[in-house]
């Protein structure tokens, strides 16, 4: 079980997430659910089933027109446009929080492999995007790039692209307007900070004293010269 950071809107137990927003925008652009599904590399049947599930929870989202001189098609309803606008506002709010919530780790580049490198920090070894001509660096990690896991249910290295992992203990859980900031002690000068939704906080029972594993991708981690 893990707690990531994703903007979602909920109604009747159904979550409207980024993939759903992509589907509605593709319908709006193409004028057809079939064309929208194809442009996103999804099957029509799955797109249709997902749209039906969303409409059961959020109301009518797509108007379907059959035949006629224009050959029929699909168009978004006012409710769909309202839902997309609300989702965009939520995501923008999350992004603004994430941009001001970063963890900075001092380290030394000990190995390079193209743009990626291995950095030794007080918290442990980190794979990150590194500068070509500096060894003493600061590793900057945005809080929305960190995923928290139950130690007993952490994916194996082969099951995820997030190869950076630190075991730690939750030391603070601060509630914001729409998300929680979870601070995890990982042996560095300052805690590692992750952003999670309320649902994720409850699912992982994130409270001070809770043991967790924090993971993040190398490509989401940037080192800059100190």
Automatic annotation (TrEMBL):
Its cellular-component GO annotations read:
plasma membrane
Annotated Mop domain ranges read: 159-225
Where it mainly occurs, coarsely classed, is membrane
| Lineage top rank: taxon | Archaea
Keyword set includes Repeat: yes
User: Record's family?
Assistant: Belongs to the ModE family.
Q: Which InterPro entries match?
A: LysR_HTH_N, Mo/tungstate-bd_C_term_dom, ModE, Molybdate_resp_trans_reg, Mop_domain, Transp-assoc_OB_typ1, WH-like_DNA-bd_sf, WH_DNA-bd_sf
Subcellular compartments: Cell membrane
Q: Where does the record locate the signal sequence feature?
A: none
Q: Which residues form a coiled coil?
A: none
Q: How does it sit in the membrane?
A: Peripheral membrane protein
Protein name from the UniProt record: TOBE domain-containing protein
Q: Which keywords appear in this protein's UniProt record, sorted alphabetically? A: Molybdenum, Repeat, Transport
């Amino acid at each position: 079980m893990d707690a990531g950071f994703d903007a979602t809107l909920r109604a009747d137990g159904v979550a409207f997430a980024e993939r759903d927003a992509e589907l509605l925008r593709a319908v709006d652009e193409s004028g057809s659910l079939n064309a929208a599904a194809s442009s996103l590399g999804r099957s029509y049947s799955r797109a249709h089933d997902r749209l039906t599930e969303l409409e059961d929870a959020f109301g009518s989202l797509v108007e379907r027109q059959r035949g006629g001189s224009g050959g029929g098609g699909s168009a978004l309803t006012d409710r769909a446009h309202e839902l997309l606008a609300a989702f965009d506002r939520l995501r923008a709010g999350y992004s603004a929080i994430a941009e001001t919530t970063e963890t900075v780790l001092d380290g030394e580049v000990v190995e390079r492999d193209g743009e990626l490198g291995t950095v030794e920090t007080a918290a442990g070894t980190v794979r990150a995007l590194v500068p070509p001509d500096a060894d003493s660096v600061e590793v900057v990690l945005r809080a929305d790039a960190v995923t928290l896991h139950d130690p007993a249910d952490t994916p194996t290295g082969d099951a995820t692209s997030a190869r950076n992992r630190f075991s730690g203990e939750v030391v603070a859980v601060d509630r914001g307007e729409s998300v929680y900031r979870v601070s995890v002690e990982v042996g560095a000068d300052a805690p590692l900070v992750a952003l999670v939704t309320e649902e994720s906080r409850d699912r992982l029972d994130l409270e001070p004293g809770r043991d967790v594993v924090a993971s993040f991708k190398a490509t989401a981690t940037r080192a800059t010269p100190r």
